[in-house]
Amino acid sequence: MTERNDLGLTATGASGGGCSCCSPSSTSGAAATPSAVTAEVMVSGMTCSHCVASVTEELGEVPGVEGIDVDLNAGGLSRVTIRSAEPIDDAAITAAIEEAGYAREDVRS
């Protein structure tokens, strides 16, 4: 009898199918850390996990950023939450998003 290894993989998406690259589900970019400051920005143009990885990588290079969570809304506005111990320069956040190839959107209530 062959021993099976549980890889801990689970289905994603509303129907439980599809790959993690294409399903419009929430994706965490970095491990959660206790941070004093949280900033939320909206980003347009992201459609898959590669997009999330690109934005997460660029934002992770901004000094002071401790964690990033992305709530991917494929083809719409995705919510990006940035955690830090101190406030992060708004221009640095915008520059990182643009460097990744996406646009930061202002959302007014």
UniProtKB/TrEMBL annotation:
Residues 37-105 form the HMA domain. It holds the Pfam family HMA. CDD domains: HMA. The keyword Cell cycle does not apply. Keywords: Metal-binding. It comes from the Bacteria. Transmembrane segments: none annotated. This is Cation transporter.
